[in-house]
Amino acid sequence: MTPAPEEATGNQSSWDTLLPDLPKGPLCRYRRKASFNWKQMAVFLDGEGIIQLKNRIFSALESDPLFAHHPGEDLCREKYQELTFLRCKRLFEYDFLTLQEVVENPLKILCLVNCLGMYDWSPSLQYLLHCGVFAGPILSASKRFADFLKQIYKMEVFGCFALTELSHGTNTKGIRTTATFDPSTQEFIIHTPDFEAAKFWVGNMGKHATHAVVYAQLYTPDGQCHGLHSFIVQIRDTKSLLPVPGVMVGDIGMKLGQNGLDNGFAMFHNVRIPKENILNIAGDVTPEGKYLSSVKDVKEHFRAALGSLSTGRIFIMAASITNLKLALSIAIRFSAARCQFGPTDDEEIPVLEYQMQQWRLLPYLAAAYALDYFCKSLLENFVEFYAGVLTKQRSQRQVDLGREIHALCAAGKPLISWTAQQAVQECREACGGHGYLAMNRLGEIRNDNDPNCTYEGDNNVLLQQTSNYLMSWMNCIRDKAPFESPSGTINVLQDYHHILGWKFTANSVEDCMDSSVPLAAYKWLVCYLLQESDLKLSKERQSGRSDFEAKNNCQVVMLQVNNLVNLFRMPFWSSATG
Questions:
Q1: For 518-538, what is the mean pLDDT?
Q2: Residue 557 per-residue DSSP state
Q3: How confident is the model at residue 578 (pLDDT cuts 50, 70, 90)?
Q4: Which of 94, 176, 187, 469 has a beta carbon 3.0–4.6 Å from 197's, enabling a disulfide?
């Protein structure tokens, strides 16, 4: 899916058709200095198909009055949410992508969401939550939902993904909504035991969703709990949008950003749904009430039930990268046009010429390219895994790939969302007082990016999940047993003992400019910190502390540091080592 170099070959006229010349203005002097053809580079990075899709999307939005921006207009939240829903509905009418196009090149769905997000994240997220996060787990389940999926893609129903509760977010095992099977009526009874178990923060639920994928603890008639499962539950009438009997649903109120998106809450009072509404990804129930599951391992069962979270995290990474690109484009262009001071009183130079300004902005520009590549390559890995889910593969490789993708997503989301958060703030400050003007969008971008650090898993907690994944290989490492991961991201640890014996041999700055030098340093640092983490954890356990206490005492000192180092390793590993 990553474009091959030959895609960037072509003549200037074809590039000019695909990418018209930029308008004349104060940036021309810098653009003329470029040492490469920017159009050729764009085709190399994205490929012609993605660029054509971008052109189609931007052209449609620019010419549609419904998407017109009105600078200075301050819509109330209710009007903004109403406008967001109308815009989301219009996106279905445009039908920018067919299912066949997505199958042939999944990067196109990433492109669509990001292009819409550049315009406004509220309709983009509303569209993604319905078509991807809500429809995704339904698509992964039984073929019996084929007709319902048609309703979803025609927007005859509107959906949301209801996992988080008021008192439980990251700790998904603590979810307390229940789904009890009643064999006498062949129904599940969805129930919220108290207000703290109310579904909360659910995007699209506040005003518009008619159906929800609800996560609940499944109970069979014998009173046994079989863990977290997902169910399709209708929450509103499809015509009137009034709540259905037994459901209390509403909007949670004003947020720091993304206020066009209607985040909501819901409580269920013994709401009955047909037996067929269980999304039988991880398990099912017989008509007599006996629980069935092809996944016997408890941990694997839990991963199967929550597999769709990786999808969301990949899209959050992509959204953060888009925010990073937007902020950098604004700040770097401003820096190229804004003149301050100079070698003489009569000559001022662009602030981009100052070393400090370059030092503040250009490392983030480099990060944008590297992280964009990582996100796209991770999506390719996920598509392979998802194909296995759809074809019901149960091989060990499929299990290992799922674990690896989960660890990469748990590492990548914090790295990318935090990088974007820091970069947007730096861009805001780098633009001086003008950066504080709302019309320049930097404040809006900062606020819209902020939740990326929290939803679909708190960043600090996600880092610990990647730590646990790395630590899980220590038995193999100690025993010098052979091991590898499907995508190869932990294969460097095969040389763990050898790497720990390395010495730093570079003697000059010139030596360090060889990419093999910092790469070797990273390998050593990862192995060293993994060793230190393992030793500290072992000492904590030997002192009589429980596994929970031991891990808690190691969080800040070693395990999180280990993760941060590993984060920088993961995105570039395959490309750096060939």
A1: 87
A2: I
A3: very low
A4: 176
Query: In angstroms, rounded to a whole number, what is the distance separating the alpha carbons of residues 415 and 410?
Result: 9
Which pLDDT score, from 0 to 100, does residue 344 have? 85
Among the ranges given (336-350, 364-378, 386-400, 532-546), the one the predictor scored with the smallest mean pLDDT:
386-400
Q: Are 162 and 214 within 8 A, CB to CB?
A: yes
Q: What are the CA-CA distances from residue 127 to residues 64, 168, 271, 338 (Å)?
A: 18, 25, 27, 38
Measured from the Cβ of residue 53, the count of other Cβ atoms closer than 10 Å reads 21
Q: H or E stretch including 342?
A: strand 339-344
pLDDT in tens, 412-444: 999 999 999 999 999 999 999 998 988 889 999
Q: What is the 3 state secondary structure string of 261-306?
A: CCEEEEEECCEEEEHHHEECCCCEECCCCCEECCCCCHHHHHHHHC
| Res. 240: pLDDT tops 70 | yes
Q: How many residues does this entry show for the chain?
A: 578
pLDDT value of position 371 = 94
SS (H, E, C) 491-545: HHHHHHHHHCCCCCCCCCHHHHCCCHHHHHHHHHHHHHHHHHHHHHHHHHHHCCC
Nearest to 327 by CA among 427, 236, 250: 427
Q: Is the dihedral of CA 374, 380, 384, 390 positive or negative?
A: positive
Task: Given the residues 82, 456, 484, 549, select the one marked as catalytic.
Answer: 456
Tens-digit pLDDT profile for residues 560-576: 554 554 444 444 444 44
Task: Return the CA Rg of the chain.
Answer: 26
**What is the predicted pLDDT for the residue at 60?**
95
Closest CA to 378 of 418, 408, 400: 408
Give φ, ψ of 278 to 5 degrees. -75, 135
Please tell me what DSSP assigns to residue 164. -
DSSP 8-class letter at 245: T
CA 202 – CA 197 distance, rounded (Å):
13
Cβ-based burial of 313 (10 A; exposed 0-12, middle 13-18, buried ≥19) = buried
Strands 271-274 and 187-191: antiparallel
73 is catalytic: no
CB half-sphere exposure, 515, CA atoms < 13 A? 6
The span from the CA of 47 to the CA of 15, in Å, is 11
- Give the helix/strand (H/E) hosting 62: helix 48-63
pLDDT given for residue 559 in this prediction: 53
Q: How many CB atoms lie within 10 A of CB 192?
A: 25
pLDDT tens for 349-381 read: 999 999 999 999 999 999 999 999 999 999 988
pLDDT (average), residues 54-76: 88
Average pLDDT, the chain: 87
Cα 313 versus chain centre, distance: 3
- Distance separating alpha carbons of residues 146 and 343, to the nearest angstrom: 70
CA 91 centroid distance within chain: 21
Residue 5 has pLDDT above 50, yes or no: no
Q: Report the C-alpha gap between 236 and 432 in whole angstroms.
A: 48
As a whole number of angstroms, the distance between CA 19 and CA 22 comes to 9
